[in-house]
Amino acid sequence: MNFEDLDRLRKENPFEQVGKLIYECLKQEILEVKLKPNTKLNESKIASELGVSRSPIKHAIDALTADGLLIKERNKISMVAPFSTDDCLKICDARVCVEGEAAFYAARYITKKQLDNLHKLQKRYMESLVSNDPIEAAKVDYQFHTEIVNSSRNKYLIKMYEDIGIYTLRNRCYLQYLIGSEKSRAELQNREKCHDTIIFAIEHGLSDTARKVISLDIQGMLEMYFLR
């Protein structure tokens, strides 16, 4: 684990509990695949590297286990949760169901402020492509789709998306990692075009088109994974 990341978070959040800061650091390392699936975590080693007691490490590991990012083996050793093709398929299926309906209603109810946010996120997404940063692009893509779900004004769809949020973000980042930088860049450029079409459909109240295109957007990433 990177001590510099923890030190930076401590300076930015001087009153936050150390355990929560370590949780954020470990979560980012898992999402960015710096800690790969099935990697075992040694609490004592992490505590020694960071110069802290084992108590905040245990707090962070327990929280990550509750999130589903870590699992505990029978010998109580914590390990980064595995990631299978079946996981990928089921997460994408869930996304199509929730985001498709959300896009349909977003085309009816989106506010000007939310629409402006979509345009800003699309700009950030394009900037991440220029800088060739697929993990950052995956994170911005997650924010883009979250904004669409929030624009649906359906509290149940929003809650459902919140419940699977950490899994959808990990899914995006891990797929980018598996695909590789060159193929990933090409695929992300396809996502850019889909984003433009989604924004157009939502902005012009084309509910059915918005639902269809956002589903194609999700499925396109999945196809790239299987064709890698």
Automatic annotation (TrEMBL):
Keyword GTP-binding applies: no
Family annotation (PANTHER family): GLUCONATE OPERON TRANSCRIPTIONAL REPRESSOR (PTHR43537:SF24), TRANSCRIPTIONAL REGULATOR, GNTR FAMILY (PTHR43537)
GO molecular function, one term: DNA binding
Gene: lldR_2
Residue ranges constituting the HTH gntR-type domain according to the UniProt record: 16-83
Keyword annotations of the record: DNA-binding, Transcription, Transcription regulation
Transcription regulation as UniProt keyword: yes
Protein name: Putative L-lactate dehydrogenase operon regulatory protein
Pfam family, one: GntR
Coiled-coil residue windows: none
InterPro entries from the UniProt entry: GntR_C, TF_FadR/GntR_C, Tscrpt_reg_HTH_GntR, WH-like_DNA-bd_sf, WH_DNA-bd_sf
Superkingdom of the organism of origin: Bacteria
Matching PROSITE patterns: HTH_GNTR
